[in-house]
Amino acid sequence: MNCVIEPGLLEGTVSIPASKSAAHRALICAALAKGTSRLTNLSDSEDIAATIGALQQMGAKITRTGSSVTVTGILEPPTQPITLDCGESGSTLRFLIPVAAALGLTCTIIGKGRLPYRPLDAYLRELPKKGISIQPERQDALLPLHMSGKLQSGVFQLEGDVSSQYLTGLLLALPLLEGDSRLELTSPLESAPYVDMTAALLRQAGVPTEKTPEGYRIPGGGVYHPLSLAIEGDYSQAAFFLTANALGSHVRVDGLGENSCQGDRKIVEILRELCYTKENTIASGLSVYAADIPDLVPVLTVLACLCGKPSRIYGAKRLRLKESDRLAAIAAALNAIGGQVSQTEDGLEIQPIAAFTGGTADSCGDHRIAMSLAVAATRSTAPVTILGAEAVRKSYPDFWSDYQKLGGTVHVISLE
């Protein structure tokens, strides 16, 4: 789907969808619990659907009614080979590989889009040391991935600066093993708030972990308890409307937890620290270290374009391995509509502009690029055409509907 966004500020109230990060973790904890869990306020995104589908294949019984889900935990893991379809969800893939290994499943893991090419180095290196046969089917891609064996406890070494998803996957899986395990980080941990979120949900599920100077110690023989939980709103999605407010819109954002441990809550602090002129334009520039908040980079780049001074975003090299090369994609997209964004090895440098000038920009099939372009359109002097606007279905299916309810004008010009 391609669409044209007319220039104009937004106004009204929006309820933000549930945190995708929290929902993935809660669903997995519920599927591993002995009993029935009830989760409410789940969003209907493609990524969450992928996790639900995979957990059902693994033996969990999951019933969905609207935004509520009832999960009866896995009683007997399937003994026959199964297929786990992760769609385009990196979280589904990296969280469930070690969980499937801990359950002793024989499975083929598949995915689409860029997912088959996203790294799995830590698992391919560490899991075979602990009893798992894990082998990509092809030489030019990591998916389909064939896996069998029963994971053994022990010491696992992980790079902390590659992806916190590996750490989360093992934190979810290792309590299921008989013996104790240790996670040792070989480099400083980035995206630490995501790991904190995992540890918090594990505590709620009655599964303890212990933080150590080297990483984590995970006692074996853990028993997951059922959850009764409402999933909090997603700060990474709220960031689009909060940033639009910094650029002149007036949107009330509902559904966020004030005491959330989501790393993307940082957007509130970043926006609060901006300096404005008497004309209500942003006088300062941005200097953002983005290692802990990679999902905010696309919309922060929009904001940086409209700051009064040059800006820099750095520590974001992992964004080259997302649904798109997000550094290249957001730079190209914003430059196509009048921005002045250049890439560095691990980030972006942005020169200020008075307004975007409109034009056609490619989302590269990336939901966060598409939504960032919608924010850019609020401060454009001419319409912005977004190619691949349907990408928002991955995380925020109602984004365009919400955008229009807030006064945004969206014309669908192609259903391709």
UniProtKB/TrEMBL annotation:
Positions that bind phosphoenolpyruvate: 20, 90, 118, 165, 326, 368, 394
Catalytically driven reaction(s): 3-phosphoshikimate + phosphoenolpyruvate = 5-O-(1-carboxyvinyl)-3-phosphoshikimate + phosphate
UniProt pathway annotation: Metabolic intermediate biosynthesis; chorismate biosynthesis; chorismate from D-erythrose 4-phosphate and phosphoenolpyruvate: step 6/7
One cellular component (GO) term of this entry: cytoplasm
Gene: aroA
Protein's name according to its UniProt entry: 3-phosphoshikimate 1-carboxyvinyltransferase
Superkingdom per UniProt: Bacteria
Subcellular location per the Swiss-Prot or TrEMBL entry: Cytoplasm
Annotated organism of origin: Ruminococcus champanellensis (strain DSM 18848 / JCM 17042 / KCTC 15320 / 18P13)
Similarity section: Belongs to the EPSP synthase family.
Primary subcellular site in the record, as a coarse category: cytoplasm
Keywords of this entry: Amino-acid biosynthesis, Aromatic amino acid biosynthesis, Cytoplasm, Transferase
